Amino acid sequence: MFIFKIHGKKTTIDAIFALAYGLYTYVNLVTTVTGGADLVNLLTQDLKNITGGILHVETDPIQAVDAMLDHI
């Protein structure tokens, strides 16, 4: 499981690599890649079936922890 606080392009790339490796990846800010509908769909839905990676974007820390515990 990876947890990222998105601060820039490098962190966004790190999160995408974690998804490619099939990891549950939590970010607490919406990343800059949300402009492309196909990419958003790939990162938020399709990768779960391709690599097993899950992207969870959540700004509420309580809900984020609950989702992580449910995943574990």
| Element string (H = helix, E = strand) | EHEHEH
Relative helix content: 40-55%
Structural class: alpha/beta
Radius of gyration from CA coordinates: 11 Å
Q: Could you tell me how far the N terminus lies from the C terminus, measured between alpha carbons in angstroms?
A: 9 Å
Low-confidence stretches: none
- Overall mean confidence score, pLDDT: 80
In spatial order, strands of the major sheet run: 1-2-3
The total count of strands amounts to 3
Report what the structure shows.
Strand 1 (about 1-5), helix 1 and strand 2 form a beta-alpha-beta unit. This protein is about 50% helix and about 15% strand. The termini are close together. It has one domain (about 1-70). The radius of gyration is 11 Å and the shape is globular. It has a 3-stranded parallel beta sheet, with helices on both faces. The longest helix has 14 residues, at about 35-50. The chain is an alpha/beta fold and about 70 residues long.
Task: Write a brief caption for the model.
By secondary structure, the chain is α/β, with parallel strands linked by helices.
